[in-house]
Design goal:
This protein is mostly helical. It has one domain. 77% of the residues lie in helices and 0% in strands. It is built from six helices and no strands. Helix 2 packs parallel to helix 6 and helix 4 packs antiparallel against helix 5. 35% of the residues are buried. Keywords: Membrane, Transmembrane, Transmembrane helix. It comes from Sphingomonas abietis. This is DUF3429 domain-containing protein.
């Protein structure tokens, strides 16, 4: 009998998973290459996109909790609320730097929490393999944007 964790990652998960996070490193490259005011515009668009995806990922966790008739365990609800709060906080933050830091915390959380959920059977088995690299792509973009915001804010 084959282990579900060894099955290939579904193509739709790869396409929609990586497709959803690729705008973040693209935004970072654009922020570093474009002249004012475009880096600020690109950064706010990245915040909006990154927060939307993070809130969507919170919804995915909640949706996975609807399996069966049992009460949704705290191990699903707490991470869902955490991710939602970070995404909403990023949208409500007064500065792009604060928003980007909240998003980076959220995406790092997904990279850690989803593989744990997959090993517990609370998420699809392929999340254990896919999420760390997928969230790493998102974090690469967010860190690039954070460094850009820091470079803009620090007079040389």
């Amino acid at each position: 009998m084959d282990d579900p964790a060894d099955r290939p990652i579904p193509a739709t998960s790869l396409i929609f998973g990586y497709g959803a996070v690729l705008p973040l490193p693209i935004a970072a490259v654009l922020a570093w290459l474009m002249s004012s005011p475009w880096p600020t515009v690109v950064t706010w668009l990245a915040v909006w996109w990154g927060a939307s995806i993070l809130i969507f990922l919170a919804g995915v966790r909640r949706g996975l909790g609807f399996r069966g008739d049992a009460e949704t365990p705290a191990s699903v609800l707490v991470p869902m609320l955490w991710l939602f709060a970070l995404g909403a906080g990023a949208l409500a933050s007064p500065t792009p730097l604060m928003s980007l830091v909240l998003l980076a915390i959220g995406y790092a959380s997904v990279a850690i929490l989803d593989p744990i959920a997959a090993r517990r059977g609370e998420a699809p088995p392929h999340f254990a393999r896919m999420r760390p690299l997928q969230m790493g792509v998102a974090l690469l973009g967010l860190i690039g944007l954070i460094l850009h915001r820091g470079a803009v804010a620090i007079p040389i």
